[in-house]
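Here comes an entry:

___
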Amino acid sequence: MSGSDIPEPQKSLLDHESHMTVTVEKYHSAAVDVRVLRKNHQELTYAREIVLTRQTDQQVVQYGIVRLNLGYLSEQVREEIEGEKVPLGRVLIEHNVMRQVKLLSLYEVQPGPALLKTFGVAPETRCYGRTAMIFCNDQPAIELLEIVLA
């Protein structure tokens, strides 16, 4: 799917090469918190299923799945990510990790029962998402699936 196939405001939320944390905070005019739904940690691989919620009202504004190669990150950055209190983008920005976000694909998503419940929306709701890769110090360190609610 191309960016021209996605309606606004979802297009602006997804069709870019920036951190979603910053993008959704700007769109919603509110800081966001991360809530980890599930995680898997094996040696240098850490994956988690998350939602980002607005701090103002705890409304879920993004669902995501992320898989990180921790070997490309400093011990301090790893510990903060594994602490699960701060959104990933915010951790990378605050620690000034040299990073580049590469947009891979855009999608229209027909949410199933679990995602409908997570977002608190009606069954006919269409959502949009993207896959992206974050390169840290020129290495492919983080794979992302991000679905937004606008």
